[in-house]
Design brief:
Layout: E1 7-8, E2 13-14, E3 19-20, E4 25-26, E5 31-32, E6 37-38, E7 43-44, E8 48-50, E9 55-56, E10 61-64, E11 77-80, E12 85-86, E13 91-93, E14 101-104, E15 109-110, E16 115-116, E17 121-122, E18 127-128, E19 133-134, E20 139-140, E21 145-146, E22 151-152, E23 157-158, E24 163-164, E25 169-170, E26 173-174, E27 178-181, E28 186-190, H1 192-197, H2 202-217, H3 222-232, H4 237-248, H5 258-261
Parallel strand pairs: 1-4, 2-5, 3-6, 4-7, 5-8, 6-9, 7-10, 8-11, 9-12, 10-13, 11-14, 12-15, 13-16, 14-17, 15-18, 16-19, 17-20, 18-21, 19-22, 20-23, 21-24, 22-25, 23-26, 24-27
Antiparallel strand pairs: 27-28
Helix pairs in contact: 2-3
Length: 262
């Protein structure tokens, strides 16, 4: 299943039933799990580990050297989960710190021409659309979608079940369950359509909507909005997810006017 026209370093570890097409490049210190497929002209660079059932399409580079002047040539890592699809000309940089890594969670789909920067963590079941650009040290939680040509600036965090519409520029933190659209980025509602398809209950969706009406549409400070959420919404997993995200990110979330953020 490995073409004689591909380059596979003798030290690379390939699992069972791995297909490596002609002109693919597999570097040293690479591990590829069972049932993966590496298409022509794709490159898997040193320091990369890949789970089972992944597909890497033409021209993609996984584990590329980081584009950061702080990196001084240390051995760093890029970790890809199971069943990840990496389409044409995607570039994923490995980390800049030996103790960290760039990580892509299982069942994530990365569309053509996207770029994921160093030490970014993309959790499972995410979708990055065509041309999405994610800078270094970002975090994207599970089941979130970044539509085509979104830009996520360095250090930004995106919560669970978020939809960011095409072309948005995000510099900050996007709380869970919301839709963000336009430039400058603005709150556009909650991601109810997708959540209903994934078995969120009507009560959960109603609680999420109520929480974000307080945060984005009441005209009160974020501090008071959070107090209202605690008073008006029964404790639940979704309530905790919203409040914990905001508190763990110093109450800085996108589309909140500065005079209401404190």
């Amino acid at each position: 299943m490995i073409s004689s026209l591909a380059h596979v370093d003798p030290s690379a570890k390939l699992g069972n039933n791995v297909t490596v097409h002609p002109f693919a490049f597999i570097d040293k210190n690479v591990e590829i799990g069972d049932d993966c497929e590496i298409f022509p002209y794709a490159s898997i660079m040193k320091g990369t580990t890949m789970g089972k059932g992944c597909r890497v399409f033409q021209g993609a580079i996984v584990g590329a050297e980081p584009q950061d002047f702080r990196w001084k040539g240390e051995d760093t890592r890029c970790e890809i989960g199971d069943n990840v699809v990496i389409r044409e000309h995607v570039i994923i940089n490995r980390g800049i710190r030996p103790e960290g890594a760039t990580t892509i969670g299982s069942d994530t789909f990365i569309m053509a021409d996207a770029h994921v920067g160093h030490d970014t963590k993309v959790m499972g079941h995410c979708v990055l659309g065509n041309g999405v650009t994610v800078a270094g040290d970002c975090e994207i939680d599970e089941c979130s979608i970044l539509s085509s040509n979104c830009v996520l600036h360095e250090g930004s965090k995106v919560g669970k079940w978020v939809l960011i519409k095409g072309g948005c520029r995000i510099s900050g933190n996007v709380p869970p369950y919301v839709i963000i659209a336009h430039n400058p980025a603005a709150y556009f509602g909650i991601n109810a359509y997708i959540m209903r398809k994934k078995d969120f209950t009507d009560q959960q969706i109603d609680d999420i909507a109520k929480a974000y009406r307080n945060i984005y549409q009441s005209g009160i400070s974020l501090y008071n909005a959070m107090r209202r959420i605690e008073a008006d919404i029964e404790p639940s997993e979704v309530r905790s997810e919203i409040l914990n995200f905001i508190r763990s990110n110093n109450s800085r979330i996108v589309a909140i006017p500065l005079d209401l953020a404190d």
